[in-house]
Recover the amino acids of this structure.
């Protein structure tokens, strides 16, 4: 079969962000890249590197048969979760996503051990081993999953936003979904209600260019996905999802709008996944050169490393962080391999909350 | 120490594969993300990427080797500053997977101990001298919602025409006036969307009551009822709850044709993680609706359009709440047990009256809750009467009736003097024509006939 030609849209844009076309309606302000201190750069680096190394290790454990079923890795997209979630108020705001969820959990600082142990299906996993890769939650962090049905999290996230508004707690919901989910009907049902009721929600399309094996251009009549909210009057912004500072800057502009009670914002984050859709995807729908080109030219972690060097962070310091992250990930893998499987009695627990 | 590269499992089912091609050779420097080899699995040819940086030490399995077991060491990588030429005791190429990294063993799992069934709560005792008031089922449901909304400000009602229109079937009449538009929310026609929104709001700490104009429209939303609401508590290991009530009319109404006339009781009752309630009279509608709103579990509450306007006695007590999962013996009898739920209970009671005139003493049980099913009450009655007939306004195949027949086989076989019989709708989509519709639906004569057949009194 002929290899798909590299398309312009396959490589993320390097511009900071593109505002929606001018209308006579009020729009969120144009975002500017976030001005991070060296300490903040270091923090972003630590978080993004943790996600990458964690996911690489998860891929390895999958290869060893220690992780089963579907396992969707976040490698390449790290700047999105880290940039966006760093802008949220952890005490108030809530987050929900689909099945490619390990990165979002890690970006919240949730212990990598309990995440990895969930991947290996152990009692110590965050869902007691009963959820697996696609079904992880941390209500404590207001992270509401981890959902396996493409697009479902968009309606659920709209419900989280409804709850914020109902209680008047000042919180904002952030609902992540992919370019594939962007074609699900319930997404637009949710857009309609969210704008109609001015719900405090940021819809985030992580456009990694491929819905499993189908490129955006082959699946979407309007492939500029940030425009998908226009007929609902939801302002859209397109953001370079490979640049953590652009992501963070755009998140702040979106949050200003939403927190001011002006209703939802749709953010399209242009990003790229280096690995297959899931572990069993050979990714024959794109060329190796295409992947390599993104890795070489647009890698979010390499980009950040350069910013750190420019900001005066020493090579040694960066090396120390790398070592430290490898250690954390190795420990999480050891833990996840050695922790016991759930007790058989767990089969029957948690089906219902109450006794009848 | 050298890193061992092992034959990876590259699909959920792969046990061995072919090492099709090496893309590196001994002594090559590799970094994370480099493609090392191509491996043919049972499904596809996959690229095998490096995870660590270093130098390829030894290649232990030659390209073109078939049937390489998952876990076999295929090469070694020396890390930074290590001697690539001296890997630590290179293992044999065809080595079995190391014991330290076993795949979760596919040995037959020993049967887990099922928790013992809990004692079901009984209906609250109604103090002697309690006044009874006549209420329609419609009013009883409205009163239940209003009482719970007064008690708990997390409770809100959402659906099509629930607020300004006062409810398509007037079940939410007056709620907007009392509770305002924030708590009684008209939605666009968007079942999938607002069912998901409701489930998300429940996860976020509210207690939504989601009205479907009919459960036929909930088919558009069934994904959220089952995948989002019912499974969340289990998938999260008990961490995340979804306390929500999905309610609305269910079953055949009158002359509305196939797409608007279906009983979803058996559909939802088959799903672990859901509570399914289908009341018959006004008192049960009230007491069980209040229980449904209070519970922390997701509830599917199946009403019946033809029952909305019927009046029944409801005890005039403050806070009348009934236990979920408890059947009710509507009529005591010793010859035969007739089990039903929702509108079928009326038919069963009518049939029992007719049968009494012919000297047959029928016991009638209203299941009230379809999940969890109160099999203990049914089995106790069967023990007494030795005959069981199930009446269900719904299709016969994979029904509550067929489920109860199986329960009788498994747990009441020795009590059965005759095979269990079911009286259900005909196994066809519901027709429109008056005569055909009548012919398709359960009715009292059919119940009478079945009871006589089971008692061999035909």
């Amino acid at each position: 079969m002929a290899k798909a030609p590299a398309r312009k849209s396959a490589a993320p844009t390097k511009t900071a962000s593109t505002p929606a076309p001018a209308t006579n309606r009020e729009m969120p302000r144009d975002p500017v890249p976030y001005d991070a201190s060296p300490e903040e750069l270091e923090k972003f680096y630590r978080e993004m590197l943790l996600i990458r190394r964690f996911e690489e290790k998860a891929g390895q454990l999958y290869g060893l048969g220690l992780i089963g079923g579907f396992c969707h890795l976040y490698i390449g997209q790290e700047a999105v979760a880290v940039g966006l979630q760093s802008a949220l108020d952890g005490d108030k705001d809530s987050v929900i996503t689909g099945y490619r969820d390990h990165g979002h959990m890690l970006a919240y600082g949730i212990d990598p051990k309990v995440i990895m142990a969930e991947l290996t299906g152990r009692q110590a996993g965050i869902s007691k081993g009963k959820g697996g890769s696609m079904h992880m939650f941390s209500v404590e962090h207001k992270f509401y999953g981890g959902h396996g049905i493409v697009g479902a999290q968009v309606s659920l996230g709209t419900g989280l936003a409804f709850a914020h508004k109902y209680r008047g707690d000042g919180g904002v919901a952030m609902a992540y979904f992919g370019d594939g989910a962007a074609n699900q009907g319930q997404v637009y049902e949710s857009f309609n209600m969210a704008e109609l009721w001015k719900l405090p929600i940021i819809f985030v399309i992580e456009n990694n260019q491929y819905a499993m094996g189908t490129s955006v251009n082959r699946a979407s009549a309007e492939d500029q996905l940030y425009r998908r909210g226009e007929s609902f009057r939801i302002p859209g912004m397109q953001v370079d999802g490979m640049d953590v500072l652009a992501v963070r800057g755009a998140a702040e502009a979106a949050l200003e709008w939403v927190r001011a009670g002006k209703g939802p914002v749709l953010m399209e984050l242009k990003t790229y996944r280096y690995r297959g859709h899931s572990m069993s995807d050979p990714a024959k729908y794109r060329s190796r050169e295409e992947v390599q080109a993104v890795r070489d030219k647009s890698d979010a972690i390499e980009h950040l490393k350069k910013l750190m060097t420019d900001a005066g962070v020493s090579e040694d310091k960066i090396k120390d962080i790398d070592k430290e992250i490898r250690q954390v990930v190795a420990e999480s893998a050891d833990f996840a391999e050695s922790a016991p499987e759930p007790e058989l009695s767990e089969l029957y627990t948690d089906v219902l909350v109450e006794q009848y | 120490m050298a890193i061992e590269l092992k034959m990876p499992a590259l699909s959920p089912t792969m046990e061995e594969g072919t090492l099709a091609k090496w893309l590196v050779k001994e002594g090559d420097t590799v970094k994370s993300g480099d493609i090392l080899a191509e491996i043919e699995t049972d499904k596809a040819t996959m690229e095998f990427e490096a995870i660590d940086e270093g130098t390829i030490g030894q290649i232990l399995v030659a390209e073109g080797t078939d049937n390489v077991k998952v876990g076999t060491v295929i090469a070694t990588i020396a890390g930074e500053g290590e001697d690539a030429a001296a890997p630590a005791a290179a293992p044999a190429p065809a080595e079995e997977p190391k014991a330290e990294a076993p795949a979760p063993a596919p040995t037959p799992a020993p049967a887990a101990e099922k928790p013992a069934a809990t004692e079901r709560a009984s209906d609250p005792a109604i103090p002697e001298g309690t006044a009874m008031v006549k209420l329609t089922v419609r009013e009883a449901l409205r009163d239940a919602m209003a009482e719970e909304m007064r008690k708990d400000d997390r409770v809100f009602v959402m659906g099509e025409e629930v607020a300004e229109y006062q409810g398509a079937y007037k079940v939410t009449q007056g709620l907007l006036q009392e509770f305002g538009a924030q708590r009684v929310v008209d939605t666009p026609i968007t079942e999938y969307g607002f069912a998901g929104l409701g489930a998300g709001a429940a996860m976020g700490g509210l207690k939504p009551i989601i009205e479907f104009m009919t459960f036929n429209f909930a088919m558009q939303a069934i994904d959220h009822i089952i995948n989002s609401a019912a499974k969340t508590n289990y998938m999260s290991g008990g961490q995340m709850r979804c306390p929500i009530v999905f309610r609305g009319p269910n079953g055949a109404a009158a002359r509305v044709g196939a797409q608007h006339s279906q009983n979803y009781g058996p559909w939802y009752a088959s799903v672990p993680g859901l509570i399914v309630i289908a009341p018959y009279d006004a008192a049960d509608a009230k007491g069980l609706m209040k229980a449904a709103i209070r519970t922390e579990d997701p509830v599917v509450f199946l009403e019946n359009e033809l029952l909305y306007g019927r009046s029944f006695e409801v005890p005039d007590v403050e806070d009348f709440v009934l236990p979920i999962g408890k059947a009710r013996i509507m009529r005591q009898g010793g010859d035969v047990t007739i089990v039903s739920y929702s509108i079928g209970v009326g038919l069963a009671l009518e049939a029992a009256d007719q049968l009494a005139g012919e000297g047959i003493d029928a016991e009638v049980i209203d299941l009230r809750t379809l999940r969890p099913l109160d099999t203990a009450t049914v089995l106790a009655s069967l023990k007494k009467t030795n005959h069981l007939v199930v009446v269900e306004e719904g299709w016969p195949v994979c029904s509550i009736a067929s489920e109860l027949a199986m329960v009788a086989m498994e747990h009441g076989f020795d009590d059965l003097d005759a095979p269990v019989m079911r009286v259900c709708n005909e196994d066809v989509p519901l027709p429109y024509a008056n005569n055909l519709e009548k012919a398709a639906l359960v009715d009292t004569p059919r119940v009478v006939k079945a009871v006589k057949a089971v008692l061999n009194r035909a």
